[in-house]
Amino acid sequence: MADSGPASFLTRANAIYRKNLTYQKRNIWSNVRLIMIPFYLCIVLVCVQALIDSQVNNSVDNQCGCKCIDKTGVEKCQMVCGVEYSTRDQGVFCAIPKPQPWPPLMLIPRPENRAVDTKYTDAPCRRKHSCPVSILLTGNNQSLGATLSRNLLRTSFTMNSFDILSSLADNVLATTYKGSATNYLDAGIVSDLSIYNIQPQCPPHSSFPFSVGQSPLNFTKEMRCVQGLNLWRNSSREINHEIFKGYQKGNSDGLISEIVAAYDLLNTIKTNFNVNIWYNATYKDDSNRPIKLVRVPRLVSLVSNAYLQYLQGPGTRISFEFVKEMPKQETKLRLDLASLIGPVFFTWVILLLLPKQHRLRIIMKMHGLGDGPYWMISYVYFLAISTLFIICLMIFGSAIGLKFFRINDYSLQFVFYFLNINLQISIAFLISSAFSKVETASVAAYIYVFGSGLLGLFLFQFMLEDLSFHRGWILVLELYPGFSLFRGLYELSQFAFHGNLSGRDGMKWKHFSDSGMDEVFYIIIVEWFVSLTVAYYIDKISSSGKDPLFFLKNTFKKSPFSQRPSFQKQVSAASKGMEKLDVIQESEKVEKLMLEQNTSHAIVCHNLKKVYPGRDGNPPKKAVQGLSLAVPTGESFGMLGPNGAGKTSFINTMTGLVKPTSGSAFVNGLSICTEMDRVYTSLGVCPQHDLLWETLTGREHLLFYGRLKNLKGSDLNQAVEEALKSVNLFHGGVADKPAGKYSGGMKRRLSVAISLIGSPKVVYMDEPSTGLDPASRVNLWTAIKRAKRHTAIILTTHSMEEAEFLCDRLGIFVDGRLQCIGNPKELKGRYGGSYVLTMTTASEHEQNMEMLVQEFSPNSKKIYHIAGTQKFEIPKEKVRISEVFQAVEKAKRSFKVFAWGLANTTLEDVFIKVARTAQDFNAFS
Prior knowledge:
Distance between the termini: 52 Å
Largest sheet: 8 strands, mixed
Radius of gyration: 45 Å
Low-confidence stretches: 248-254, 554-579
């Protein structure tokens, strides 16, 4: 016997934990294969990386140039490698013992982005790309500022072809290309962009070429003049406002307005040189990190020389000839595939861990498994599997040499992955709660997985790398969980790629804030909390029948029947239309029960309706139309009806699988609309289709569901043994075989045993004996009949024999309506008050036989006729049996009678008669 009351939270959690543990033991190799997926993926990456190493990284074209030279004079050469033997592209990889000097450049805005003074408000120079570059000045002494402003730029350009660097040092050279990571090879000189010489006025035809650098790193560049415009501002506040108003935002015309630099001379006088310099330090390299070498030295040199000339005269000057790096060793090209394709590849790898939910949850829920234990155990299970998956991914990736894992900090990676798998589990719960069909949820999950990778690669990554794209919108896009994962993987891959390329470390905790990973972590945590909360909320209102604002309701418990509305005595329109006295009486009985505070009836349905919306131009389907029914404890109620009558829809409505369109129903005083969670604790269900775990045995199924019914210890083992014996699954080792090896009949018997274990107060069985052989069917009927003593049972069936054997009362259901109700004898007496006479004669005597029957029973009706065989329905009250025998003897003397028989009306005849009458009535109406 079950303990009093439903199973506790810990009892149900223990039940599903034990079931999951057993299930996973049986599916251990599936889990091993899942965890081995990272190994296979990493092997693929290593193979492709080996191909890249042989064809790209170790290619002769991507190494320092070499030449065979005879140094000893014995006609035997030796390979010597160096810059002097390299092409321009190969020179980057050579050792540089004496780094190349480069002329210092100033960074200026691109022509279309340059700020203009008020006299250029119409800005025709923007269209011609001829606007001057603006330098702003302010300070306490405007006259001093005017003097320094005149000294900033040289009025003429001179070039000494014998000493290029010295000649260039006497001029102000500029570029629109951002600074480089090093000064081994200045990106402003290497690029295809021109070099600019800034002068107060540009003479016509002031463009000319010049060469700089040493072979093979020598370049011929075109130098063009650009006008420099020095503008005074009254205060540093004006400059600050102008800088931030124009930078990447634009003025009132929507045009970006950038300046070169700004100087605040502060309290500078002849005896004191004090200046602040504004410059653009917002540029970042390809790994989204600030550029270390910005073009500031030339700005400092300009103002320093201007002040020196102010003190000593125009002939005084400090020459700023060049910039250069420290010597470096030979390097090699190191392209890491895992880092290059890391964002999209590992997005798919991690998102493929998205847990999939199955229909088996609903059958567990119907047998009393609450949401709390299910969510907790399922969450912990998915978290353990996913964590093991991630750890294996990191170990395998590092062991076989993927820089994506080796270079980046392991603890930072693990925390990032761990947060993401928690988010994914909550999203899986959200998807399963939002979609009622498993197929729809699976499609949505796969679209989410692959769509996130593709959108991240072709859309989100483009936005990340476009510095003109507003960073606030990046934050908004990362609220989509797939993009937050992609962003984190993108940052890890960029740090790994450039770290490997330059020989530096990858991402460490010290880069946490600068890299943008901090906002990714915060977003993932917020998304995890929100998605888990929303999933719980949707699950509550969709599967438990709660009001959408259930959390605002009064938490004090109320009497179950106090929530029922007050009903006046009335007869449903459906009952009136059909004028079935037994159905009307059942409806009146339900009306009285609805007004009572307590009742012995386990199941009470009042005017229950279920209408499925019309699709593809079809009208709505009325599956259940105003059903009123009361079933007391200890009664077995059978629902008969043709296919499509609405029997299964009624069962699905009563078990919470679908929501009723209108009406109400109560199970042990609890509403199926608002208290389904409590209804499930006293419910047993045998669905139309078996829902079993293929790898669990019959005994393990019953142990699990018995624990949900609060059975423990010896009571549990005894109940399981009795249940197996009652459905003939105990002997021959059948109980300990996996359910996947059961026949269809054995699975059906196990489903019935599951519905009856723990003595539930209400049991629903949808065609329980389908597919069973006659012996097994009778054995199953005996088990069901024995179990109904303390249980209310509603079952559907197409077997009239089963209905007569099991059911205390029957209801015939046609087109969603209850047509009649009563015990089998009453129905046969009410709808079957006639004999059925069957006679088979030669075809030429059929008319004679019909005339003979009409003689002794004028009210008889022929109900069957084929190939000489005729059936006649003869009212019992109009004829005696002796008269029928006399008529048959008379017929035998007149013509040949091959066979004949006389029988009472069967339940099958009643069913056919009621179903046909109801269908004809509905078709006519």
